[in-house]
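=== Discrete structure encoding ===
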Amino acid sequence: MVRTLWDALGEIEDRRGRKGRQYRLQSVLGIAIAAMLAGANDLIAIFRWGRRLKPEALRLFGIENGKAPCHATYHYFFQALDADSLSRALGRFARGDGEATHFALDGKTLKGSRRLDAKAVHVLSAFATELSAVIGELTVEPDQNEITAAMVLLKGLPLEGAIITGDAIFTQREICQHIRDRNGHYLFTVKDNQPELKRNIAEAFGDLSPLWSAA
């Protein structure tokens, strides 16, 4: 049986209290995703898109009473949503039965995510090039860095036989060892902030290394 996006949404842990579960997690997320695919880019737009759905359309989202969620429901729902759990579920869905052999690690700060004195949200992603999809994503906490987050993210990826690429921040012994222990391979950038490693690489390649000509 084909596994659908609806099935994937059903795997996400619902952290809302019992009183906050007037609508199923699948229903609210399903409407939100459909609304965003239709061009909605904020909660007001999602709410308005959902309110225009007819009762028969709402039933397809698991809502039998014919009443779409109100704006406040979306607000509190997304506040309580476990973003990392959502990311893992969507990553498994994107991966499906496809085989990915190249994962590109990259961290990005989300534009417009800063609120009051809080820092903007920073997310580390693993992009599977063969699938053209992000199959792993992790929010980097304010007291965390991309190196620590990368170790957590890598533990959830199928690394055997895969190649992991990324910029110089991931050129760390612990990360490289973890990839090799899982029978994976890595290709990371080495910069001047690791002069000994850079020199060792140049010596290993001898006259073939472009580093000698640049010296």
